[in-house]
Amino acid sequence: MKTRIQWREKNGLCGKTREWLYDHLKRDGYDRIEDILYGEWSETDGFYIKTYP
């Protein structure tokens, strides 16, 4: 299965790169992007991640 990441910003550019995303997900224990079903990030709350069951 090919993994597709949809990188959206609600209010303009968030100033982050895909590399930033991958680095921070790995730092938070998500080594396999394929395991992530849904994710959000905000300056105030950080990541909200849902993985496949």
Q: What would your notes on this structure say?
A:
- It is a single chain.
- The protein has 53 residues and is of the alpha+beta class.
- It is built from one helix and two strands; from the N terminus they run αββ.
- Strands 1-2 form a two-stranded antiparallel sheet.
- The radius of gyration is 11 Å and the shape is globular.
Distance between the termini: 16 Å
Question: What would you report as the Rg, rounded to the nearest angstrom?
Answer: 11 Å
| Largest sheet, spatial ordering of strands | 1-2
Q: SSE order in H/E notation?
A: HEE
Number of strands: 2
Provide the helix percentage.
10-25%
Broad structural category: alpha+beta
Instruction: Report the β-strand fraction as a percent range.
Output: 15-25%
Low-pLDDT stretches: none
Mean of residue pLDDT? 80
Assembly state of the chains shown: single chain
Name the shape in a single word: globular
- Count every helix, treating DSSP H or I runs of 4 or more residues as helices: 1
Question: What kind of sheet is the major sheet?
Answer: 2 strands, antiparallel
